[in-house]
Amino acid sequence: MRSPMIGLLGLGLLAGTAHAQESDVARRFGTLAGTTQVSLSPDGQKLAFLAPSKGQANDLYVVDIGEGAVPRRILRSSGDPEILFWCKWATATRLVCEIGGRDKVAGGIRGFTSLIGVDASGGNVKTLSARRSDNAISYDFRGGEVIDWQPGVDGSVLMMRSYVPEVSATTLVRKDGEGMGVDMVDVVDASTKMVEKPRVDAVEYISDGNGKVRIMGLHAVNRSTGYRDPAVRHLFRRQNSRDWEQLSAYDIASGMGFYPYAIDTATNRAIGFAKVDGRRAVVAVSLDGAAKAEPLYRHPEVDMDGLVRVGRNQRVVGATFVTEKRQMAITDPKVEAMAKSLSKALGGKDVYFVDASADETQWLVWAGSDVDPGRYYRYTPAAKQLRPLLEDRPLLSDQTLSPVRSIRYPAADGTMIPGYLTLPPGRADAKGLPAIVMPHGGPSARDEWGFDWLAQYFAQRGFAVVQPNFRGSAGYGDQWYMDNGFQSWRTAIGDVADAGRWLVAEGVDPAKLSVVGWSYGGYAALQSGVIAPDLFRSIVAIAPVTDLAQLKSDAQRYTSGALVRDFIGSGPHIREGSPAQNAAGIKAPVLMFHGTLDQNVDIEQARIMRRALNSAGKSVELIEYPGLAHGLNDSEARTAMLARITQFLPH
Question: Apex CA 454: angle with CA 449 and CA 455, to 5°?
Fold first, then answer.
């Protein structure tokens, strides 16, 4: 007969082992991607990539693409508050990086950016953005943007740079330049030559890829209200002209009008997006004064959502769209052949072109799938050589992940709602499982097939996960988008709740059905608890919107306030569609997470919800992360959040 003491010790060891295993799974999925951005040098022989460090800090590494080469860290951001956003090779020995972050300024949270140049060895760090002197009489936190990487001058780039007026109290020197202009900037010594004088209402410039600025975007601020106008205007120049002419106007709220993104020099046309028959299409507009428009890429069921751009001059060779899976429509025969052959060689994985050497003999590509978080490769077409370089998530390299299935389920009015179902590894159906409905953020967004760290984590913990593309989601045209997920909240949230009812019909355990969402998804999770209080047994909301009136009020501090006001709208839905105004109707316990430096959704939204639930006698917990922004981009914070959610959900 076994001793009782031995039995208790054995149970303790088993429990400790189980807890350690759970913590390890949370760590594997909660840890940020090991590589966040990669660039290939113009000679095709070196990589530069960003990788997370402790907390919010991150590092820039450079490595020669050779056998046994070891990456060298050449730059580190502190993460408090600045981080490295991206780094790209300007020459074979010099990189340009954007640093930035968020900080509290004058009662609000403001973002800031700056561009720097750095040698591949890590030395000779130079600020490339316009410097502010002590004589500056206003603020502009925009550091600018590179708009042309090969303008025809060795070691230089074309940069948008922001200027502010300066006045000296002791001299007669005055500088009146204000707003965004364009300069030719030497990335080695930071010397500059003005190309376009700054304009206070300029928000973007588009180069032809050969050093000529052909398009300027203007977004004026109304001086009487302090808010930006509802439309962005674009002007263009004819070839060999310096005069600006009207090209297009784009209404931000409705999405009507043409918005240019690139220039095709071969045909002298601007390429961008415009609606055709209620769906977003890629359109080309002539830059000869006739403004002749021609649809280049369109789909009868979904919106076109991106351009395929390759080479140092970022020429457009196709467009992307998402039906059940993301697809590319490519018109360049060489690029199309490469994409097909690489996908076939990699077992049908999605393949995307990230960068290329100056002569395009070397290509940097990324490939991944629903069960593969992704990896970067260098491809040499002449040798037909595909060399693996960096993994996105090395901690998951030996983890069996779950296939993602496209589904359609019926809404209450019979409309079939598209979405994705992820089951625990090895499961063919959801019968008897605990389950989660996980609405996406936005609301001007959609979910798509592929690797999703949250859905995959919950599947590892034994949950069936549905990600619904409810009405109000973007990507399916105007009719599906309706008036957006706030103004049309009843339909959008109804579709989210119907995803839960579909799961129950599929056999999941109704006593273990939960809803989890981030940003607008957090709003949808909370509001689902209002309209279907007996359906979901627990609610998790990460960085949620909870009070639409407060959201409109908060926006008044910014120049985008009128756009946000009109997007949210006015009427009874402001109260009826706000979870914080209807907290008494929620029955399920609520768990919320929010960063205190969230520029997208102020943390006060979560605090308002906590107060409302407490006042109504409901179960609520809010976990705040000091100094973190909307994405909670901190491995330790994400790991702890996953572990706490797992403890909270019924399973």
Answer: 50
Short-list 26, 29, 40, 31, CA closest to 390: 40
Query: Which of 317, 305, 236, 251 has the alpha carbon at shortest distance from 273?
Result: 305
Q: Please tell me the pTM assigned to this model.
A: 0.92
Question: pLDDT at position 239, please?
Answer: 93
3-state secondary structure of 612: helix
Tell me the backbone φ, ψ of residue 198, rounded to 5 degrees.
-65, 145
**How does pLDDT run across 164-213, given as a tens digit for each residue?**
886 665 554 456 678 999 999 999 999 999 999 999 999 999 999 989 99
Q: For residues 455 and 468, is the Cβ–Cβ distance under 8 A?
A: no
User: What is d(CA 274, CA 259) in angstroms, rounded to the nearest whole number?
Assistant: 7
Say whether pLDDT at 616 is over 60. yes
How far is it, in rounded angstroms, from Cα 105 to Cα 324? 43
How many residues are there in the chain? 651
Domain ranges of the chain: 36-200, 404-648
- What's the count of helices (H) and strands (E) in the chain, helices before strands? 12, 37
pLDDT, position 174: 52
Please state, in angstroms and rounded to a whole number, the distance separating the CA atoms of residues 334 and 312: 16
Report the C-alpha gap between 92 and 96 in whole angstroms: 12
**CATH number for the segment(s) 36-200:** 2.40.128
Of 3.40.50.1820, 3.30.2170.10, 1.10.10.10, 3.50.50.60, which CATH number belongs to 404-648?
3.40.50.1820
Coil vs helix vs strand at 567: helix
Tokens of 37: 């951005």
